[in-house]
Specification:
Blueprint: H1 15-24, E1 26-27, E2 34-35, H2 42-53, H3 57-68, E3 99-101, H4 127-150, H5 153-169, E4 172-174, H6 180-197, H7 205-236, H8 245-261, H9 264-281, H10 307-326, H11 334-337, H12 339-352, E5 363-365, E6 376-381, E7 386-391, E8 397-400, E9 406-408, H13 418-428, H14 434-442, E10 448-449, E11 452-453, H15 455-459, H16 463-466
Parallel strand pairs: 3-4, 5-9
Antiparallel strand pairs: 1-2, 6-7, 7-8, 10-11
Helix pairs in contact: 1-2, 4-5, 4-6, 5-7, 6-7, 6-8, 7-8, 8-9, 8-10, 9-10, 10-12, 10-13, 12-14
Amino acid sequence: MSSLRTTNLKFTDFDPVKATYKALRSFNDSSGFVHPGGVIGPAELALMQHRLQDNATLQELALKTLLTGAGVIPKTYNNGWQVPTDTPINYAGPFVLVNVSARYGGSNKDSGECPQNYPDGAPRDNCAHISLVELDAQQTYKQALAFWATGNVTYAENALRITHAWASNNQAFGDVRENGPLEAAWAVASFAKALELLRGRVPGWQATYEEFMAWTEQLLMPQTDEYMNSTKNAIAIGQQNVLNNWHSTIAEAWMAVGVLTDDKVRYRKAVNLYHATVRDYTKWGRAKGFRDGGRVLGETSETLRDIYHTQFGLGGLLQVAEMAWQQDMDLYSSNQFALVPALELTARIIMANDSESQLPQGFKLLKSMPKPPSGTMWAFDMQRQRFFAKNKTSGAWVADLNDGIKYLQGITFLPTAWEHAYNHYVGRLGLKMPETAALIKRHYVDWYAMHWGGGTLSHANTAGSLWRAGLRPFTLWQVTFTQP
């Protein structure tokens, strides 16, 4: 599969791509933002279209995955129901709720509030989260991307239809004290990026955009703003390791809306939150708050919580970095390129899977943990970055685990913008990321799920044509290098 990533357009073939790029690109003089300016910019869109016209194998595979779900690892709920992985042109949704009230974990407070057309077999106790995030918002972005990849306007119309339905019918959103802010950010990230892709391309866009923003400003953004106020309060009283995947998702939602609305204030808030989250999320060594032993290089504050949520955190950050790159701002290098070792360590862990011997030194699988004291169970305290035994009945702390081992759980692959990261760090900059390369080779089509991914279709191997093919054969250890 690596051979699919080694062919770039020759410069003599690039004039048609440049012409398409110029036709797609617009610039807002007031905000200074380029449009379309989501995770996929006009250059990527132009190159994607020409590659599909030329039957480029990797992009054809990625398009097949987008439309049919081929090769996607479906999310499976406890009752066996799986989230659909395709992008049907006759989409059965939207699945709108008048009232969204999500508890931690995404469960709705009343299963009777599920949409009348809710899919058979889908868990009803999670219908708020599933309907909004994993069906409609996710599908909105996929439909918008399918429009650009196929030219079929029905996909764009589907995206606007879903957005209109939610913006005009949802009347209440919460719970701000539980999962409401995260559900709002997940949804906004996908909806806003979809609308940015479709900006001015189909009839009805302007009206749908205005409806979406009225809904977002009234019900969704206040959820994220209030949650960030509570975060500031937690930091003010000295809590450690506060910033996590919630904050990376909120940063993505804020930036997506900032670009969509040409709102420089919201965009700047997203940038500031991004830098703070990267700094806190990837902090390692003997920094303040780690006097009892620190994280290793690449370990995030959620690595020992589980690898599943770690990828949620990294995915949101990478989406923000790519959106900023489209606006000529480099966030990928934040905090001395801290995301690079975080990606490499996480990829190494995922590739090891259940083989403990393949894990980095000092890490073991959760099944290797010693038995907890009688009547207790092990839990992970993210603030203290420590496993501890808690009473099974009361949840009270009993004892810390002090064996010096880092235990891992929730090891699985998610398409959290690995392709975007690899294209930037390796493709644009010429860095070496062997662990990430191995992971992408195993999962060579980066599909779209939740609010991240889809990068194989739009970004795979674009650096050599749109930027430069890294700095090969230059390495940091050579005094001189040859031009690519």
